[in-house]
Amino acid sequence: MDERTADIVIEALRVGEVPAEGQDAIATGIEAHIAALAKELPRIAAGRGRARFVRGDFGAGKTFFLRYLAALARKEGFAASYVRVSYPEVPLHKPVAVYRALCSGLGVSERPDGALRHVAEQWLYKATERVMDPSLGHGLQPGEPGFDEALSKEVKTMLGGVADAAPAFAQALGAYAAASLAGEEEVARALLQWVGGDPKVAATAKRRAHLVGNLDATDVLPMLRGLAALVTQAGYRGLVVVVDEVERLVRLPRADSRKTGLELLQNWMGAMEAGQVPGVLLVVAGTSSFFTSSRAVPMLEPLQQRIGTLDDGPFPDLDAAQIALPPFNAARLQSVGVAVRDLYEVRYPGTTDRCDDAFVSRLAGEVAGAFRGKVETTPRRFLRELIGVLGRCQQHVAYRPHEHFRFQVNATDPELADAERAAIEGRNVAEAEVAPLPEGFDL
Prior knowledge:
52% of the residues lie in helices and 7% in strands. It contains 21 helices and 6 strands. It has helices at 3-14, 31-38, 40-45, 62-75, 95-104, 116-132, 147-158, 160-165, 167-181, 185-195, 203-208, 217-233, 255-273, 288-292, 301-307, 330-347, 357-370, 379-395, 401-404, 418-425, 429-433, and strands at 50-55, 79-84, 106-107, 239-244, 280-286, 322-324. Strands 3-2-4-5-1-6 form a 6-stranded mixed beta sheet, sandwiched between helices. It is globular, with a radius of gyration of 24 Å. The model has no long low-confidence stretch (mean pLDDT 92).
């Protein structure tokens, strides 16, 4: 691994975040699970729609898993989007907000984030290439008589299938193409913002595409289909959408809001199974509470039937609709710690010899002990502490971790997540994850 990528990993772990790149260097214990979902990529490249569900309790590495899968998909020529459910910003029961977050988080290999405009430009470039291709009957070059008219017709042809399922999407994209070709950058940018679900688009721009009003919940599934078509016509192999932290839905006080969020997943999954949204892989991840609580999936029987029961035996079927990530244990924690230590050596050569395997093992034990032996809750804190120790080794020649470091934490630490605090206090971690939100968060 190069120094730049190593630095990205180190600095993300320093603040308790999942690195945007280099996940493969520290992925341990989930190789078979990644391989199982990677098998879906050729299927969506062939035009199928797929949906999978990933279960993992606090500390299992769901976010890491999803971001790793998305990065792998981008590397393999797909577009991918990471969506994190949050309240009130991205509530699962507000389909337009979910779609907007999906478009905002869209990434491709050459632009891992915020790539919607890049994809649209690639799509328009592909249309231009088709007009220039003599084998398709045009053979016109930009600037030649008839080129603009031929390109306009080609855009309409490419949007033909999209217009049947998502007419508003096709109208907006066609008007975007026309504005781009005319050099009207502001209009083109505004129309692309509308395609991305932005409700604050100037009326003048919307009139250019004959659009009325803003998107509502009934528009979202057709818009998703339109987005998938845009991605594939732009030259990418398909669209991977990963949705994280869906267990937050359990915390909503209103049952109708929870049911609406579940219905969104049911509708998307059903549309994919029926072939209505080709070229899309949807991967949804949450804790056990989302799958088992009477406030979540069991509320909606059709969704529960589609997800199926979890095979948690010693030989699980990793091709099932629902799979579970293995929780961290002491051996896996030690393994990822050594991998991170070795990455630090890539970034800062000659500074990690004082942080040997024995110290990594000791630190893992101390952190787990502070959390009352609940190793599964400790990875984030363990890695932050390890990065801090390595930083001191790099900054201070006299620093000796075996002599100078002892891990300490208490329940009042503001950096702790609710589940971590519950582990320290000996409370039920799962209950801490789903404490009800205040009234008003589901409005």
